Amino acid sequence: PTRDICKDQEVKDYAVRHMEQDGDWDPEADWAVTTRDLDVDDHLTQMKALAPFVDSSMSKTVNVPADYPFDEFKELYKKAHDTGVIKGVTTYRAGTMSAVLSGDEEEDGTVPRTQAPDRPKTLPCAIHRVRYRGDHWTILVGFLEEDPYEVFAFKSKGEAPLFGDDAERIDEGYIRKNKSRHYSLLDPDEQVVIDDITSHMPSDAVREETRLVSTALRHGSKIDFLVEQLEKAKGTVASFGRSMAKALSAHADTHEVTCDQCGSANVRHVEGCMECADCGHSRCS
């Protein structure tokens, strides 16, 4: 059901609005969260802190996903009661009716919307060295558990090793987030190799494209789809786009990929590229 007598109106936190005007607002800061970034315990913790100083007119809606189990609904209300100070609480399950408070990108019934998982301070990463038309690129693919979560890319100085004499044997490390837009590359022993990765990116175009691809990854886009789009890159970002596609293709699920030429599902990774074992077509050719 919908609330037909109501209208949608964009709202923005008072402090956020003023921070934007002053140029101080950073939506990627650790403390910058919305209702959908909070779990149930976060909502209740807020209420517990405020409830002793507010009467029963205090209003707080706990936002939960559409598939939130009934038993957990019961536990939510029990936890609120057990605090001894929370006087009332309500919930909104996504998709059940028009929300009192919703994001402007909330699911509309046609395109699934996702909430990216929080990034730990340090993520393991794969290190790819890719050459395309004379350009040498180093591509870092950060992983959250077993899933690619983010990418960084910068030009290598020819065939110069990244980690010194033993570099050719090192293909993994860690990416540590120090603060917003400041990431460090660590070696397998967690020693800093590059303090500020983004400062080594050759252009704004490369920085923005890696940021957009990282956003797509952490929101669940399939790697084979991203690879297909990157392979279409033309102009000044062609070398970079194809190189990043080659690196990401090493982490794609080939069971869901078919050959662009003959349609065969017999596709395999060969030197970072998806190649058809039946007709020989390569996406990197």
Characteristics:
two-stranded parallel ribbon; 24% helix; 10 strands; 6 helices; 285 residues; 2 domains; alpha+beta; 6-stranded antiparallel β-sheet
Task: Trace the largest sheet across and list its strands.
Answer: 5-4-3-6-7-8
**What is the radius of gyration computed over CA atoms, rounded to a whole number of angstroms?**
24 Å
- Give the biggest beta sheet: 6 strands, antiparallel
Order of helices and strands: HHEHEEEEEEEHHHEE
Count of DSSP-assigned helices = 6
SS strand fraction: 15-25%
> Structural class, from secondary structure content?
alpha+beta
Distance between the termini: 52 Å
Q: List the domain count as a whole number.
A: 2
Outline the low-pLDDT stretches: none
Helix content: 10-25%
Shape: elongated
Rounded mean pLDDT is: 79
Q: What is the strand tally?
A: 10
What does this structure look like?
This protein is of the alpha+beta class and 285 residues long. The protein has 2 domains: 1-115, no CATH class; 122-252, no CATH class. Helices cover 24% and strands 22% of the residues. The protein is built from 6 helices and 10 strands; from the N terminus they run ααβαβββββββαααββ. A hairpin with a 2-residue loop joins strand 9 and strand 10 (273-276). Helix 5 runs antiparallel to helix 6 (238-249). The radius of gyration is 24 Å and the shape is elongated. The relative contact order is 0.09.
